[in-house]
Fold this sequence. Notes:
- By secondary structure, this protein is of the alpha/beta class.
- Helix content is 38%, strand content 20%.
- The protein contains 10 helices and 9 strands.
- The strands form 2 sheets. The protein has a 6-stranded parallel beta sheet, sandwiched between helices.
- Helix 6 crosses helix 7 and helix 9 packs antiparallel against helix 10.
- The radius of gyration is 19 Å and the shape is globular.
- The N and C termini lie far apart (49 Å).
- Adenosine monophosphate (AMP) binds next to helix 2 and strand 5.
Amino acid sequence: MQVIEKIKDVSNFIKELKAQKKTVGFVPTMGFLHEGHLSLMRYAKKVTDVVVVSIFVNPTQFGPKEDFNAYPRDMEGDKGKCLEAGVDILFIPSASEIYPEGYLTYVNVEKIADVMCGASRAGHFKGVATIVAKLFNIVKPDKAFFGQKDYQQAVVIKRMAADLNMDVDIEALPTVREPDGLAISSRNSYLSGAERAAAACLYMSLKLAEDRIGKGEKNSAKIIEAMQHIIQAEKLVKIDYIAIADTETLEEVKTIDRKVVIALAVWIGKTRLIDNVIVNPSP
Ligand code: AMP
């Protein structure tokens, strides 16, 4: 595995690989790697010749009051995990390598980046779209892999790639969960024992929604109310939002007459967690 810090070095390496007609798979991450990230890398290894992983805690996607400084980091542990997953190139740029002095350019995806998590985290998806666009230009992947756990992120990236004619296939892969259903996240490491136990209510509420829709419920407001009941039973958990939305436009769906994403964000103490499921109503 090549561990590379400089853009020029990674570009040169990729050029050589492309000259050899190798296909490049790319998994961008912020590190503190877990089974969710590793599932993307293992999948990339199966479907592309060369797997590139980036680890970069991207300052532009964090708000001024968010957890950029506290975000968990473990570069040595991450290197070992990448090696084990068969990663070929690990790209770990510094912030000044990515955003040198005088940097002024950002990618702004409209509308779909302003709802759900975008409404709670102003500017978040502008930071995400910008870093992913930059990394795509550096790594030039044939395929890039994202987790469904960050569903809105995957939708925003797909929109950006299509709108800006980026020559890359984007795939969103299933959410990897703990045995009690909690979506694995680097931020789960912030939770105390009691908070971690309470966090099981996120997936419970999503399963309940799935179950109700399976039984024929089409009224989004009723489903959201039932989800609120489950989550509000946990005193440590505060709802940021619950949304039932079209899977592509992310517009609110009031009557569930098509495939929808049910997405939520909650606060557990100082930790903000997100999760979602995609549900197809029975005909
Ligand atoms: P992050 O390091 O949080 O920026 O995540 C890097 C990539 O891993 C993103 O595409 C995430 O959606 C994906 N990811 C994070 N957690 C999971 C999970 N539990 N299951 C599947 N993919 C995940």
